[in-house]
Specification:
The chain has helices at residues 16-32, 47-60, 74-80, 96-103, 120-127, 155-165, 181-186, 196-199, and strands at residues 2-6, 37-40, 67-71, 84-88, 112-117, 133-136, 142-144, 147-150, 170-173, 191-194. By secondary structure, the chain is an alpha/beta fold. The chain has one domain (2-199): TIM Barrel. The model has no long low-confidence stretch (mean pLDDT 93).
Length: 201
């Protein structure tokens, strides 16, 4: 089962410096645990700060198969020589094809590109740009403090998404737990992606 850990440094206690330090330690632990992808998703950080954090994470996972993707910032990914970029399928965003054109003359390392999709139609559109993987969500309803924040699309819809995306692998995202991850694989997903699941230590 492929696993993608999505970062959220605010889940760690302390001030900004403590949170970033904790995230770097967590990234090293993920690499030890064999996590396939780490998606650095710290949208509020300025580019320079994000780049510094990314370099520290790359150092922490150096020598392991774990790959670091920068969320929605191909410029930062290029600057730090990250393994790739994670994109959204929202209108007006760069496509995987455009990012590859941007990266190819500037980099000598393979650029891994994943993309988030929430509908079958967005998967069909994304597929034309040949992403390396698709994160499809939300599968299960999202609950925080026992309140439903976002309803889930369910396993049947996940199965349809996997059929639409094939042969591109799907990571199931949204409400994923240790208890339901096997159901996602049975529905056709190649793996799972999560924030809180992987931040539990």
């Amino acid at each position: 089962m492929l696993r993608c850990a999505i970062t959220n440094r605010t889940l760690f206690p302390g001030d900004e410096s403590r949170q970033q330090a904790a995230l770097i330690r967590q990234a090293a632990l993920w690499a030890e645990q064999g996590i396939d992808l780490i998606q650095l998703r710290e949208k509020d950080l300025p580019a320079a700060t994000l780049a510094t954090l990314a370099r520290q994470i790359l150092k922490a996972i150096e020598g392991t198969p774990t790959k670091l993707l920068i969320n929605s910032r191909p410029d930062v990914a290029i600057a730090v020589a990250a393994h790739g970029v994670h994109l959204t399928s929202a209108p007006g965003e760069l496509t995987p094809s455009e990012v590859r054109k941007l990266c190819s003359p500037l980099t000598t390392f393979p650029t891994l590109i994943t993309i988030s999709c929430h509908t079958i139609s967005s998967i069909v559109a994304a597929k034309t740009h040949q992403p390396d993987a698709i994160l499809f969500s939300p599968i299960f309803e999202k609950n925080i403090d026992n309140q439903t924040i976002l309803p889930g699309q369910g396993l049947t819809h996940l199965h349809e998404a996997c059929l639409a995306a094939a042969p591109i692998p799907i990571y199931a995202l949204g409400g994923i737990t240790h208890a339901n991850s096997a159901q996602c694989l049975q529905a056709g997903a190649a793996g799972i992606a999560a924030i809180r699941l992987f931040h539990q230590t």
